[in-house]
Amino acid sequence: MAKHTHTRRSLLALGGAAALTACTRTAYDLTDDAPAPGSGFVSPDGPEVAAAERGRATNGTVREVRLTAVEGPVELGGGRSVRTWSYGGEVPGREIRLTAGDTLAATLTNHLPDTTSAHWHGLALRNDMDGVPDLTQPPIGAGAEFSYRFAVERPGTYWFHPHTGVQLDRGLYAPLIVADPREPMPYDKEWTVVLDDWLDGIDGSTPDSVMAELMGGPAARPSRMLTDAKSMLLGGDTGHVAYPLYLINGRTPDDPSVFAARPGDRIRIRFINAGGDSPFRVALGGHRMTVTHTDGFPVSHADTDALLIGMGERYDVLVTAGDGVFPLTALAEGKDASALAVLRTSPGGAVPVAGTRPAELDGVLVTADRLRADESVRLPDPGRAADRTVRLTLTGSMDAHDWAFDRQPYDHHHSAPHAVRAGERVRIEFANHTRMWHPVHLHGHTFSLGRDGARKDTAVVLPGQSLSVDLDADNPGLWMLHCHNIYHSEAGMMTVLGYQP
Ligand code: C2O
Ligand code: CU
Question: What angle do CA 490, 67, 444 make, to 5 degrees?
Answer without folding.
Answer: 50
